C-alpha cells in the first residue's frame, strides 16, 4: 500500500499540486485510462507553467510600475522617517544645548559680575594709593623747592656778606697802605712784595733791572725828592 499510495510532500506548493496528482494517477493506473487528449492536456499544463515562470521573471512594464512606485513610496517613507528622527534628535540636542548654555550663561554672568566687583575694588584701592603717592611726591617736591630757595637765599646772603667783608678789608688795607711814608717808600714796598718779575723786551732780550732797584732804594725815606708826596689834586 505504501508503494501504491506514497506520502504527499507537505512542502509542495499549490501550483505543482495538479501536476503531481496527474503523475501519481498515471503511475497507479498506467495506460489503462489513457486517451488522446491527455498528451494535449499535459502539454498545455507544461506550457502554462513555463509562461507563468517567464512572467514572474520578466514582468510587463505596466504591471512593474506600481511595484517601482511602491518601492519609491517606501523609500520616501523611510527617508521621511529618517528626517523626522534626525529633526527630533537635533531638536532634543538643541534644547539640551540651549538649557546647558542657559545655565552656563547664568554661571558666566555671575562670575563676570563678581569679577567686575573685584576689579572695581582693586581699581579703587589702586587709585587711592596712587593719589596718596602723588600727594606725597608733590609735598616732597614742594619741600625740595622750598629748601632750594631757602638755601639759595641763605647762601646768597652769606656770599654777599663775605664780599662786603672782603671789600671792607681791602679798602682798609689800601687806605693804611696809602698813609704810610712817601710814594717811593710805597713803591719799594710793592716791589719787594711782588718780587722779581721777568719781563722780556720786544727783541726777546732781558734787561738788567739792578740799577733801577738801586735808584728806588736811594729815593726811599726821603721827603724832599720829586714825587715823594704822591699824586695830589
Overview of this protein structure:
- By secondary structure, the chain is mostly helical.
- Among the domains are: 45 residues; 44 residues, no CATH class.
- Helices cover 76% and strands 0% of the residues.
- The chain contains 5 helices and no strands.
- The radius of gyration is 74 Å and the shape is rod-shaped.
- It starts with 13 loop residues before the first helix and ends in a 14-residue tail after the last helix.
- It is found in: Cytoplasmic vesicle membrane; Membrane, Coated pit.
- Keywords: Coated pit, Coiled coil, Cytoplasmic vesicle, Membrane.
- InterPro entries: Clathrin_L-chain.
- It comes from Candida maltosa (strain Xu316).
Low-confidence stretches: 63-69, 96-104
Roughly how many Å apart are the termini?
197 Å
How many beta-strand runs? 0
Helix percent band = over 70%
Q: What kind of assembly state do the chains in view correspond to?
A: single chain
Strand-residue proportion: under 5%
Query: What is the number of helical segments per DSSP (H or I, 4+ residues)?
Result: 5
Basic shape: rod-shaped
Average residue-wise pLDDT: 72
Structural class: mainly alpha
Main β-sheet, in a few words?
none
Order of helices and strands: HHHHH
Using only CA atoms, what is the Rg? 74 Å
Amino acid at each position: 500500500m505504501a508503494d501504491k499510495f506514497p506520502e504527499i510532500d507537505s512542502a509542495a506548493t499549490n501550483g505543482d499540486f495538479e501536476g503531481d496528482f496527474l503523475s501519481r494517477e498515471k503511475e497507479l493506473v498506467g495506460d489503462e485510462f489513457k486517451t488522446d487528449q491527455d498528451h494535449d492536456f499535459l502539454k498545455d499544463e507544461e506550457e502554462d507553467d513555463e509562461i507563468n515562470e517567464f512572467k514572474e521573471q520578466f514582468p510587463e512594464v505596466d504591471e512593474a510600475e506600481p511595484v517601482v512606485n511602491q518601492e519609491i513610496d517606501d523609500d520616501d517613507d523611510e527617508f521621511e522617517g529618517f528626517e523626522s528622527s534626525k529633526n527630533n534628535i537635533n531638536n532634543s540636542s538643541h534644547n539640551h544645548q540651549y538649557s546647558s548654555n542657559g545655565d552656563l550663561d547664568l554661571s558666566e554672568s555671575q562670575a563676570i559680575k563678581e569679577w567686575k566687583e573685584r576689579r572695581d575694588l582693586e581699581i579703587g584701592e589702586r587709585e587711592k594709593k596712587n593719589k596718596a603717592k602723588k600727594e606725597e611726591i608733590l609735598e616732597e617736591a614742594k619741600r625740595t623747592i622750598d629748601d632750594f630757595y631757602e638755601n639759595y637765599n641763605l647762601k646768597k646772603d652769606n656770599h654777599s656778606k663775605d664780599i662786603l667783608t672782603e671789600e671792607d678789608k681791602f679798602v682798609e688795607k689800601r687806605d693804611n697802605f696809602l698813609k704810610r711814608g712817601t710814594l717811593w717808600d710805597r713803591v719799594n714796598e710793592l716791589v719787594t712784595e711782588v718780587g722779581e718779575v721777568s719781563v722780556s723786551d720786544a727783541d726777546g732780550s732781558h734787561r738788567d733791572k739792578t740799577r733801577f732797584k738801586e735808584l728806588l732804594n736811594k729815593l726811599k725815606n726821603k721827603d724832599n725828592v720829586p714825587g715823594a708826596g704822591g699824586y695830589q689834586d
